[in-house]
Amino acid sequence: MYGEIDLETYTVAIIRLNTAFGKLEDLKTDEARELLGESCRDLQKIYSEIVDDLNQEEVNLNEYYLFFQNGKQTFPQYIEALGSIEDDELQETVNQLLNVFTNLNKIADGFKGDNLNGI
User: Fold this and answer.
1) How many CA atoms, within 13 angstroms, populate the side-chain half-sphere of residue 86?
2) How far apart (Å, rounded) are the C-alpha atoms in residues 96 and 88?
3) Tell me: the pLDDT tens digits for 47-56?
4) Rounded to whole angstroms, how far apart are CA atoms 91 and 19?
5) CA–CA separation, 85 and 83 (whole Å)
6) Which carries the bigger pLDDT value, residue 19 or residue 27?
7) What's the CA gap between 113 and 18, in Å, rounded?
8) How far apart are alpha carbons 43 and 12 in whole angstroms?
9) Cα–Cα distances in Å, from 23 out to 37, 75, 81?
10) CA 35 to chain centre
11) What is the per-residue pLDDT across 25-46, written as a single tens digit (0 to 9) for each?
12) Whether the Cβ atoms of residue 107 and residue 54 lie closer than 8 Å to each other
């Protein structure tokens, strides 16, 4: 990644996640499970890359500013939506997604644009 967020992968992951929510409304659990799993893998990869980048000695915070400003609003919404899913078959994947969004949200909360407050 080297100082850049893979916004294409992030966008695809969010589209898959939103599509999975629609599949759950239509009671298409198998399709939703697949979409949730793919989204989870992509988001976990992005999160890991962000953490790696932010732990470098020199970080270009401008790359992250808009992403985390947007995330401050969207991450809590996804946390809430995922927390409302009550399906035992999906629980493991939902918990993994909740973990990723919770971790991204923690970074967003600590992100001020010019520093990361110890993150």
Assistant:
1) 1
2) 14
3) 999 999 989 8
4) 17
5) 6
6) 19
7) 28
8) 10
9) 13, 21, 14
10) 14
11) 999 999 999 999 999 999 999 9
12) yes
3-state DSSP percent of the chain in helix, strand and coil, to 5: 75, 0, 25
* The predicted structure's pLDDT at residue 60: 79
Percent above pLDDT 90 for the chain:
76
Q: How far is CA 61 from CA 1, 6, 56, 76, 107, in A?
A: 14, 15, 11, 22, 12
Contacts of 64 (CB under 8 A, 6+ apart): 5, 50, 54, 111
Residue 117 has pLDDT above 60, yes or no: no
Give dist(CA 4, CA 50) in Å, integer.
8
Alpha-carbon distances of 84 from 44, 81, 87, rounded to whole Å: 21, 5, 9
Q: What is the pLDDT of residue 57?
A: 86
Residues in the chain: 119
Give the pLDDT band of residue 118 (cuts 50, 70, 90).
Answer: very low
